[in-house]
Structure formats: structure tokens, C-alpha cells
């Protein structure tokens, strides 16, 4: 698939150009991962969150930093460790002796883009501290609700759960991520360019923001106007139904997963310059939306392989 064209049926030319330049800039920093970069923009524009899972050293954090530098939004990074507390992420109320009142000191979650680095190295209690923030874009502490800034976008990285010192993310936490994807090893050409090129950290430090709060919010509004036909919705529903009776699957996809798939497909269509969703948009996104939500009936079974099997079992009418 090609990136979005110079003109777009739903967006002003200036916004199209800025969006194209933003994707090109991230692609220049994360070499050879055009699909993964597009999926990262899908998660952003679909008002979702992104989970990047892969081995250490394959560019997970680099992609997150490249997105943050390019988007021109408020950014905070939290390194998740075994001793990280919920208050280290959300904030704490501290008693002020002079005013005789508790003063709330917001944590790093009060930003536009939160990089939760190696999220599965923190214990479940700290992982779950993000649930309300990710689902409701708010934080409730000591009976007081604090609204987060918009847009709010979590990019979390995690190492495979079979590595030492990791805690599996609970299903409720996984479901908060619109997409889960891996990066994989670069091919020989891109790896050579990476080895011979400048340090990625220096390149990211020198990048300039190409989008901002108003542009991102405008793009999210445009996603909601992308048309999904009745036939397309039938196709999505057929995928959901198949997942619940697919051999090897103990727990299939929920209606919320279907809504996430549709929202992501709309964003994907917008990025490719269309005002309507095609089955190809759904098929491109389905493994990234579905795999981390499926529960195999056998330990060790690959949910990614199951998602592909579901996709192949449902025809496009």
C-alpha cells in the first residue's frame, strides 16, 4: 500500500502535507518499518493507544521517541521497574502545613504522549494504575477526578513475557491498547544504513515537530467522518463471530474489539487518502487489533497465528 496522496477528499491540503511529512520523518528515523510507522499513526488518529512488543534493541523506544518528537505534543517518559509505585505515574497529594490542605502534584501521566517503557517490568498494581487514564482520559485520586489533556496517547513498550523480570499484562490492560505490534529485525539493507548512519538519539534530538495539538485533534475528528458501509460492518461482525467459534480460541473478540477494529480501519483509510473504509483496511489491521485480545485454549499457542486463521476463514462478500 502507498502512503496518502498529495490531495485528500476530507482534509485541507496543508494538513495533508503536514501528515505526509510527519510520516516521512518518522520513517527516516525508524528505517525499514513503513507499515509499523503507519500503524503507530493509526493508533494516534483513532484515539487509541499503542503497545509495541519485541526483543530488546529492535527500536521500540526509538519509534516512540520519533513519534513524540515529530508530533510536537507534550511528552513524558516513565521507565517501568519492579519498584515503581502507582503514585510515581499518576501523582500524589501532599499535605501543605501552611495552607493545612492537601495539594495534588500531578505525575507524568498528565501529558499528551506518555511513553510507558518496558511496562511489563512493573508489578500488576502499577500497571493497573493506567487503566482509568487510558480508558477515560482522567485520573481519580483521593475522591477527586482530574481530567487529562487532549490528545492523550500512550505508547507502551514491553519485552516478551518469557524474558526474566517481566509480569504479563492482564487482559483488562491489554484491551486498553487499540493495537499491539512488533518491529522485528531490519533487513540487510536497512541494518547497513542504520550501522553506517548517525546515532538515532542525535537525529531525534535534532528533529522538528511537524504537527501539533490542533492538527491532531482535527485529524481525529476527520477519522470519525470516514464512511463504513453496511457491507463492511457485516464483514467486521463476521470476523467477531468467527473468533468466538474458531478452533483453538477459548475467548473470542468482544463487541468493544469490533469497535476498535472499525475505528482503526477508518484511521487507516484516512491515512491512505480515502473517505471510506475498504476490506483491505480491516485485513491490514486485524492481527494487530485482535491477537492480544484473543485467549487461546492451549498454553503456548500463538494468538497471532489464530488471528490470521480467523482472517483467512472469513470471506469478503
Please give a structural write-up:
The protein contains 14 helices and eleven strands. The chain is α/β, with parallel strands linked by helices. Strand 3 and strand 4 form a beta hairpin. The strands form four sheets. The protein has a five-stranded parallel β-sheet. The two termini are 22 Å apart. The protein is 44% helix and 15% strand. The chain folds into two domains: 13-225, P-loop containing nucleotide triphosphate hydrolases (Rossmann fold, 3-Layer(aba) Sandwich); 226-317, Magnesium chelatase subunit I, C-Terminal domain (Helicase, Ruva Protein, domain 3, Orthogonal Bundle). The protein is globular and about 70 Å long.
Secondary-structure blueprint of this entry?
Elements: H1 13-29, H2 34-45, E1 50-53, H3 60-71, E2 75-79, H4 86-90, E3 91-96, E4 101-106, E5 113-117, H5 124-127, H6 131-136, E6 138-141, E7 144-147, E8 153-158, H7 171-174, E9 179-181, H8 188-196, H9 200-205, H10 213-224, H11 230-243, E10 249-251, H12 255-271, H13 279-290, E11 295-296, H14 303-313
Helix pairs in contact: 1-3, 2-12, 10-12, 11-12, 12-13, 13-14
Amino acid at each position: 500500500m502507498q502512503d496518502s496522496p498529495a490531495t485528500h477528499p476530507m482534509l485541507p491540503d496543508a494538513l495533508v502535507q503536514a501528515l505526509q511529512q510527519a510520516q516521512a520523518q518518522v520513517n527516516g528515523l525508524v528505517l525499514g518499518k513503513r507499515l509499523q510507522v503507519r500503524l503507530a499513526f493509526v493508533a494516534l488518529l483513532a484515539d487509541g493507544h499503542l503497545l509495541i512488543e519485541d526483543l530488546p534493541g529492535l527500536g521500540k523506544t526509538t519509534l516512540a521517541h520519533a513519534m513524540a518528537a515529530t508530533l510536537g505534543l507534550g511528552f513524558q517518559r516513565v521507565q517501568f521497574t519492579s519498584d515503581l509505585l502507582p503514585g510515581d505515574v499518576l501523582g500524589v497529594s501532599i499535605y501543605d502545613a501552611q495552607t493545612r490542605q492537601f495539594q495534588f502534584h500531578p505525575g507524568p501521566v498528565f501529558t499528551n504522549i506518555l511513553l510507558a517503557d518496558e511496562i511489563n517490568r512493573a508489578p500488576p498494581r502499577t500497571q493497573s494504575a493506567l487503566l482509568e487514564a487510558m480508558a477515560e482520559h482522567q485520573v481519580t485520586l483521593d475522591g477527586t477526578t482530574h481530567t487529562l489533556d487532549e490528545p492523550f496517547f500512550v505508547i507502551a513498550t514491553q519485552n516478551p513475557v518469557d524474558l526474566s523480570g517481566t509480569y504479563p499484562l492482564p487482559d483488562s490492560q491489554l484491551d486498553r491498547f487499540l493495537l499491539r505490534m512488533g518491529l522485528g529485525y531490519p533487513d540487510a539493507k536497512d541494518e547497513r544504513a542504520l550501522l553506517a548512519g548517525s546515532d538515532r538519539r542525535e537525529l531525534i534530538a535534532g528533529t522538528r515537530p511537524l504537527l501539533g495539538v490542533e492538527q491532531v485533534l482535527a485529524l481525529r475528528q476527520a477519522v470519525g467522518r470516514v464512511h463504513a458501509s453496511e457491507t463492511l460492518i457485516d464483514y467486521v461482525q463476521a470476523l467477531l463471530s468467527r473468533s468466538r467459534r474458531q478452533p483453538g480460541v477459548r475467548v473470542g473478540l468482544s463487541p468493544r474489539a469490533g469497535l476498535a477494529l472499525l475505528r482503526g480501519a477508518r484511521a487507516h483509510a484516512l491515512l491512505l487518502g480515502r473517505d471510506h473504509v475498504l476490506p483491505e483496511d480491516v485485513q491490514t489491521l486485524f492481527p494487530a487489533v485482535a491477537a492480544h485480545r484473543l485467549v487461546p485454549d492451549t498454553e503456548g499457542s500463538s494468538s497471532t497465528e489464530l488471528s490470521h486463521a480467523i482472517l483467512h476463514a472469513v470471506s469478503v462478500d
